[in-house]
Amino acid sequence: MLESGKISIRQVAILIYLAMIGDMIIILPPIAAGYAEQDGWIVSLLCIPAGMLLIWIHLKLHALYPKDTIVQICLRLLGRWLGSLVGLIYLVFFIIAGAIYVREVGDFLTTQLFANTPIRYVHLLFILAILWAIWHGLEVVARSAELLLPLFVFIFIILVLCLIPEIELPRLMPVFGEDHYSLIRGTMLTTFYPFGEMIVFSMIYPYVESQAHMKRDVLLATMLASLTLFLVVLLALTVLGVFFTKHNIYATYILTQKINIGGFLQRIEALMAAAWVTTTFIKSCIFSYAFVLGTAQLFRLRTMKPLYVPTALLLFGLALLVATDVIYYLITVVPFWIDWNITYSLMFPLLLLTVHTIRSRNKSALPG
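Request: output the structure for the sequence above.
Response:
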């Protein structure tokens, strides 16, 4: 086995919670408001049952092959050539997604906090941290998540409590003011962006120590993460309003600039930046690790060590190539990224489940 380490159910639940929030805590409010206007909070609530069903499909596939990653399942069910092709497509998804998260961190920090710092240096420092984490294995990434979770929860609670006086519920009116198509489109986006990307954990599930209650804990972690994102969207709409939420990709960061308690507690947006970079770091580590592990499995390597540095170099190069600037990213990448998420998180898993069902029926139909 390429990965000798094991993580606990609690650790995988923490990883899912932080990874699902990841970059979504910043970019989900403008996405929800952009398609559903003041009903953005409704679509972020409607996406929860749909997203839970999506995660259940992933867990169902894992339950059939508990010792195999999604790449190995593709090889097992689809054969050498087609399975290798689908597995390779998953690897492309993992590395490009990881590069996009790196680019998001670079764009955010260089436009909001470090305006005079070249984005390449921000990318380099972030990727070095990712390289250090995945080099030491899955256990180190999981333990890092355990240490970072209290920091994120503390910052998020402070954010919510301090923004309560700024909430204006009339900003949500009229309820269901948008057409049905906008609500459906918004629900699809808020479902397949945060939930769909959790297909990456199909590379992690085989390395969970005890799996007796894993399905329950994974679904619970997913539910808590989705409720956290719902609360972020609700706060953005009620504090900033529809116009500022949908026209500012960093709406959640702008929220913290609204905090002013007694003229004393204010300008704490650096805390929000720390929380977002923390969750995006964990998400980037998971996708990078999944790419390294999947590559080693696809090409039947004995060890993953030779792949870490090349993966870091790929992340560095792709992070500069995926988008020329944040505006290009918003216009070109975001609207079409959902097609990737639907393909990898829904279509391929359903294909694998269908092939498994057909093979099982054929075996049972054989005499003797």
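DSSP finds 14 helices and two strands in the chain.
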